[in-house]
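Dear Dr. H.,

I hope your travels went smoothly. While you were away I took the liberty of generating a structure for the chain from your last submission, since the lab meeting agenda had it listed for discussion. I wanted you to have the full record in hand beforehand rather than looking at slides cold. The sequence, exactly as received, is reproduced here:
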Amino acid sequence: MEWFEALALLLGTIVFLMAIGMPIALAFLAANIVGAWVFMGGERGVVQLLNNGLGSLTKYALMPIPLFLLMGEIFFHTGLGGRMFTAIDKLLGRLPGRLSYVTVLGGTAFSTLSGSSMGSTALLGSLMVPEMSRRGYKSHMSIGPILGTGGLAIIIPPSALAVLLATLAQIDVAALLIAGVVPGLILACFYIATIWLQTRIDPDAAPAYDVEPMSLGTKIKLIMTEVVPMVGVMVVIIALMIKGFVTPSEAAAFGALGVLILAAVFRCLTWEAMKKSVIGALRVTLMAYLIVFGSATFSQLLAFSGASRGLVHWATSFDLAPLAMLLVMFAVLLLLGMFMEQISIMLLTVPIFFPLAQTLGFNPIWFALIMLLSLEISFTTPPFGLLLFVMKGVAPAGTTMREIYVSAFPFIFCSLFLVALLIAFPQLALWLPSL
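The corresponding predicted structure, in token form, is as follows:
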């Protein structure tokens, strides 16, 4: 069987099963079983493939996923996230558009602990949009920052999605997590600059309102008690990874322990909150591990059937410049992001794109970060980006999809500009990991 026939059989089976409503992870598993039966000698090949897939689940690199997820769930269900948002809101005083800034600043901090774009967007949308609407904010000032900030969860560590991508691509987990720090902070600064520009162009878009004045001592106390402890957890675990004192798995364990201790200190650690946190983390972890299993076996089948080797040879035969090929892959990811969620896209493209990137001579950490950014952009790309529909679900009644689309565009341009900067200056992503 030719390589393109093998690829068509595997991908065709997956697309067909997804079209009839089968979950992506199960569709990959079923397609892998069919492929093993065809390419690896029937029942014996299926057994061998399943054994290989189970071995992929014992990797130490997968340990951060449940711990990062648990950390974010505790942060949310215990109310620590709400305390931090309230404190930032008070600290900004009468600043025009301050609730938009609160969304970016607080959302960036929350994103580092949640690791879920959809979860971050749902939380920020339900928490901030009604309040901003009540204060007279125009829709682009309330919805836009949330759509942008929700995507920061993908690249700012600790990101469970980055851990999963690094595991699937078999690259250094710690290096990818650390590589997202500088670009993530730059993107947050772009968002703040965008909000400032919007308030300058249209001051009525975010009306100022009176707030109770606070003394300097009160502000310092608020920062030290409500903001520093929450953000400090993220800063400490990143610093420990950069210095090489801990592995990503150990950093995730310290992070989960740190949030647990904070919840106990603030007396918001309840049995109900812990129950919801564990169930939420367990649900996503099981799906992530099933996806790792499917991806590992799918990659082996692509290699065994000759499909991956043939596809890479075919793609490189066009004699395109590496930058042109990168833009083609970027466009494919944006297109897929309009119809599929991020983990499904990773599962489908990682076994194909990373061998191709290696052939083109791309740094794997840099390419992985570009891929994460493309997934973040695709999530808010009209007309079918998934975060757009998440926002529609939590936005006030009467909010139209057109308003959501218009709100998303300035923040999409910020992300595209960051991608251009990373292509022009790769060291923005590679400087911290090199330390």
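Two observations you may find useful: The longest helix spans residues 271-305. The radius of gyration is 22 Å.

With kind regards,
E. W.
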